[in-house]
Amino acid sequence: MKKTKKETPLMKQYNAIKAKYPDALLLFRVGDFYETFGEDAIKTAGILGIILTKRGAGSDSETELAGFPHHSINTYLPKLVKAGQRVAICDQLEDPKQTKTIVKRGVTELVTPGVALNDEVLVSKSNNFLCSVYFNKKLIGVSFLDISTGEFLTSQGNAEYIDKLLQNFSPSEVLVSKQKRSLFKETFGEDFHTFYLEDWVYQTDYAYETLIKHFNTKTLKGFGVEELSEGVIASGSVLHYLAETQHNKLQHITAIARIAEDDYVWMDRFTIRNLELYNSTNTNAVTLLNVIDKTISPMGGRLLKRWLALPLKRLESIKQRHEVVDFLTKDDSTLQSIQNHIKQIGDLERLISKVATGKINPREVIQLKNSLEAIVPIKVLASNCSNESLKIIGDKLQSCDVLRQKIKETLNEDAPVNILKGHSIAAGFSSELDELRGLSKSGKDYLDAMLERETKHTGITSLKIGSNNVYGYYIEVRNTHKDKVPETWIRKQTLVNAERYITEELKEYENKILGAEERILVIEQQLFSELIVWLHQYIKPVQQNAYLIGQLDCLCGFAQLAKENNYSYPIISESYDLDIKDGRHPVIEKQLPIGESYIANDVFLDRETQQIIMITGPNMSGKSAILRQTALIVLLAQIGSFVPAQTARIGLVDKIFTRVGASDNISMGESTFMVEMNETASILNNISDRSLVLLDEIGRGTSTYDGISIAWAISEYLHEHPAKPKTLFATHYHELNEMSETFGRIKNYNVSVKELKDNVLFLRKLVEGGSAHSFGIHVAKMAGMPQQVLHRANRILKKLERSHSSEELTDKVKTIKDDMQLSFFNLDDPLLENIKEEILHIDIDTLTPVEALMKLNEIKRMLAPKKEI
Question: What is the C-alpha to C-alpha distance for residues 147 and 127, in angstroms, rounded to an integer?
Fold first, then answer.
């Protein structure tokens, strides 16, 4: 902010604080308002839609001003943060009554998109991750921290792996070294909300020191991250940033976990996008998460996203989840009972985080107690289950009896949100508090008695005792009786129709009552603070409960999903086969009109006989749906869910690759074909023997023969590769059907259609054998393409179909071109011939506007009968 010629003491103080936080909006507390000045005010008024005024208008110190009442902070702060702003909250650090000079002020909190504890900013079923990325020569380190739940994760790897993690975890804010600003944008694009730190923050020793100091350990070996040097640097920079933003109460961040690349199925960013797991490029599209999320707790909702981002590769872990889901689908009463209790549980993770950060209010502490109470019957139910995995969850759940008892005896069940409202502490907890409350309560009786006494004494029947903030307690006498007022009463205030007085007794009583009420508030705040400090020892057990309830919620959700949608138990093994009978697309089947059933399909792939399936068939026939549903069935099975198929035998898959032509992204300035080739190259360079590869319309971004050649070469490469990856290849190049004659493990399938006289019916059924020709013209007809275009296309198609060799093709196209240019009037229709004649004989140069309109009307009349036929 530019220095003005003249600075008031307040603006001098403001400018000094603002200089420390140049890149944040500074909310500056002045009395009962948070004010913003200058550029900040212009931004704030724009985002919040509040009035922009001027301070010191017309003077040397004139500056823009926008503000709002301090009690509206929870309404306005989320809007600023959601708009991507960093907000520094500057509070008054002393009571204005206690100082004769300017009030001391300082920033008490810096809220940024990635560092928010405010419920209005957070989404209950989504994590709010702050991320840091550290670039080393070969590897990149990454760290994700959700300050609202205490989850802290780290990993390292190449750019492709980090890119995948960024897509999956979608952080709200990413920290990067200032020197790597352009490198980050080149590598990961510009979709992220980034903040740049000084380069010295990303130093090995500093990061390591920061982490072990926070966790109070000698090394990081206990967390399994000691060897992740790049990951450790990224993690250290996250903690550094929290300290910089005035977030020092971080006892709820109790551990750091490693995202082990080897434990989870590899999916690159294109696959995540193509399969539409969490979001879709199409607005209002339904994603896989929308369909499978049956969780009822915030912890379950967040964990399900993590499971979907990181499908399992370990057979044992997958089977454990399947066994629990199987048990719950068969035991309906246990499922319903557990779900009913989970409904009573609030967001345990975020509640206990608020305890650690000191941001919790009395009502939330009661919610914490009630949530822990709902865990007790779940613990009993799970512990007594015949399923081993559920038994383990039940045994690990902690009933936290002492914690619940302590909250119960300390707080009122209907405690208010704001501690300053009073009545937070339960009766019987503090004798001093009970005594003061008694005094405060008995006050009304005391005043009633006084009023009765004084009425008798003075003979004034309309006496009233009241109080206000300015004058305190008073006795009000109407003007008609003012001559009866005793001399000992002291006049306090004159109204139009009455006078207000005070007596010695009333003054004494007022001091006593006000003292009691002030003291009550002080004691309540003190007792509440002591309770919160005491609760700190329970952070870990409550976090463990939250995680276990999240797991249980996800598994119950899977059971409910299976029952509602007729999903079956997939058999996962160490084999290499993929055998799906009557598989369905989980999302598309939910979108079908009522009464219409999804056309299920079988898919079989192995490494010996049928490694590559070449699927031909017209556009719109459902080729892409078959590809996607195969990937989604595998994915669902490996996150522990049942699957939309009659049966599914799945040999463990370690990587899923998709390349789908329809979702080309050319916003980066590369051609569609270049994007396609980059993505395909990435697949071919990373395949393994357990990979599932789905290719849709590869090579269509270039000329036909180029496209066929590339598609052929890619198929050949996959067939001859020692890994023999299982592949589904959808194409409209029917020439590729010939590959099955040369390559033993390539099989031809097509999506069948039923040809009627002038139409085609898409049966969406996958059958063996290649497809003879495309039905693109039929699709064009369904789309409402003009008749003459369709006639022309059919003629060209017939000529081309007679040509089988590429040499003849060019000549054929030439002869077609000479033969007949597309013309609106080259159709055998006498009416169109007449209109043609009419138009050709018009002398445009001598035609008046009126004549032109009349002529047009005449032509329109000639066409009218045609319309009625």
Answer: 9
**Six-digit token string for 479:** 């003007």
815: containing domain: 786-819
Q: Give a yes or no: residue 221 inside a domain.
A: yes
Residue 272 lies in a domain: no
Q: Rounded to an integer, what distance in angstroms lies between the CA atom of residue 619 and that of residue 804? A: 22
- 26: which 2 tokens? 């500074």
Please, how many CA atoms are within 13 Å of residue 856, restricted to the half-sphere of its CB? 8
User: HSE-up of 20 (CA within 13 Å, CB side)?
Assistant: 13
The enclosing domain of 143 has a CATH number of: 3.30.420.110
CA distance linking residue 66 with residue 73, whole number of Å: 14
Sheet with 173-177: list strands edge to edge. Answer: 194-197, 173-177, 130-135, 140-146, 151-157, 257-258
Point out which residues pair with 111 in neighbouring strands. 87
Total count of domains within the chain: 7
Q: Per-residue pLDDT tens for 137-190?
A: 889 999 999 999 999 999 999 998 999 899 888 899 999 999 998 999 999 888
Q: Which of 56-70, 72-86, 398-412, 585-599 has the lowest mean pLDDT?
A: 56-70
Tokens 């490198």, residue? 183
* Domain end (from 263, 284, 307): 263
Position 4, amino acid: T
Same domain? 467 vs 345:
no
d(CA 292, CA 562): 9
The residue that leads in pLDDT, 864 or 487, is 487
CB 166 within 8 A of CB 140: no
Residue 643: give its domain's CATH number: 3.40.50.300
Average pLDDT over residues 87-107: 83
pLDDT over 90 (residue 864): no
Distance, in Å, from the CA atom of 752 to the CA atom of 771, rounded to the nearest integer, reads: 8
- pLDDT over 50 (residue 825): no
Higher pLDDT pick, 566 / 826: 566
pLDDT band at 684 (very low <50, low <70, confident <90, very high): confident
**385 vs 236: CA distance, rounded Å:** 43
pLDDT > 70 in the chain, percent: 87
Does residue 590 have a pLDDT over 80?
yes
**8 Å CB contact between 304 and 557:** yes
Mean per-residue pLDDT for 536-547?
A: 92
Show the beta-strand stretches assigned E in 584-676.
601-605, 612-616, 647-651, 655-660
Least confident of 82-86, 243-247, 550-554, 791-795: 791-795
DSSP letter at 146?
E
Structure tokens at 794: 């059919």
Regarding whether 544 and 675 lie in a shared domain, the answer is: no
Say how far apart CA 645 and CA 650 lie, in whole Å: 12
Same domain for 576 and 545: no
Go through 397-407 and write b for each residue having 16 or more CB atoms within 10 A of its CB, e for each that does not: bbbbeebbebb
Q: Any idea which residue has 């999956």 for tokens? A: 168
Asked if residue 845 and residue 812 are part of one domain, the reply reads no
Instruction: Answer yes or no: do 84 and 48 share one domain.
Output: yes
Mean pLDDT along residues 197-203: 92
Same domain, 834 and 698: no
Does residue 78 form part of some domain?
yes
* 859 close to 835: Cβ distance less than 8 angstroms: yes
- The residue assigned the tokens 């897509």 is 167
- Cβ atoms within 10 Å of 69's Cβ, excluding its own: 12
Identify whether residues 658 and 725 lie together within a single domain.
yes
Instruction: Name the token pair of 117.
Output: 């504890």
Task: Indicate whether 119 belongs to any domain.
Answer: no
What Cα–Cα distance (Å) separates residue 611 from each residue in 686, 691, 710?
17, 11, 19
Provide the CATH number for the domain around residue 501.
1.10.1420.10
Mean pLDDT, the chain, rounded, equals 83
Predicted TM-score (pTM) of the model is: 0.79
In three-state secondary structure terms, 762 is strand
The answer to whether residues 378 and 455 belong to one domain is no
